[in-house]
Specification:
Blueprint: H1 2-10, E1 15-19, E2 25-28, H2 34-41, E3 46-48, E4 56-58, E5 62-69, H3 79-94, E6 102-103, E7 124-126, E8 129-139, E9 142-149, H4 155-162, H5 173-187, H6 190-193
Parallel strand pairs: 2-3
Antiparallel strand pairs: 1-5, 2-4, 5-9, 6-7, 7-8, 8-9
């Protein structure tokens, strides 16, 4: 989570980061209540995201962060438009192996604290099951999308679906310095993770 935020603040251009987890954990949305998440997490580490959305169980998924720093024009779009654009692109990459992939409509949506049990509008479905979802933060720094896929596209196909041209990203020392600081001062603290208790 710290690296994702640091990417938005230091990258200077849009960057897609894809990663897997070394052990199971739960991330939960900025506005969710910690007291509601603890029973859902069933003893797993639970970390509050800078973005919104519901609780996501990580371990088998491919986790994505798309950092689009200002002044990219995407920052000016409405959040629902950004979410739709990103998920249309991801769904197009998934269709190579999952031809039945589609985006959730109003009739597919269900309220709930767990992201993959409760589809939201424009989440990614296959056979009626949610296989992709995400959350956004949009502000003066730009747009940060954090998502999770439970299907198997290659990272290259995802990047190609999101942008006409791609090039490798070489992180500078400022990214590590900032992400280390965010991890220590924010994401690993009770003050951050428990700030909305009940």
């Amino acid at each position: 989570m710290a690296v994702d935020e640091a990417l938005l603040l230091t990258a200077g251009r849009p960057v897609l980061r894809a990663y897997r987890w070394t052990r199971s954990a739960v991330t939960f949305g900025y506005a969710q209540r910690h007291g509601e998440i603890v029973p859902l997490a069933r003893g797993l580490p639970a970390i509050r995201r800078w973005t919104g959305g519901g609780a996501v169980f990580h371990g088998e998924d491919l986790t994505l962060a798309l950092a689009v720093p200002a002044p990219h024009p995407l920052r000016l779009a409405r959040p629902e438009t950004i979410y739709l654009w990103i998920h249309e692109a991801l769904a197009s990459a998934l269709r190579a192996t999952l031809p039945d992939v589609r985006l959730a409509g109003p009739d597919d949506c269900r309220p709930g604290a767990e992201c993959f049990v409760s589809p939201a509008l424009h989440d990614i479905l296959c056979g009626g099951v949610k296989v992709g979802g995400g959350a956004l933060r949009r502000g003066k720094a730009g747009v940060l999308y954090q998502g999770s896929l439970h299907a198997g596209p290659t990272v290259g196909s995802l990047a190609a679906a999101l942008a006409e041209s791609q090039e490798p990203f070489a992180p500078g020392p400022e990214l590590k310095i900032l992400s280390d600081r965010l991890e220590v001062e924010k994401y690993s603290t009770d003050g951050w993770n428990r700030m909305r208790q009940h």
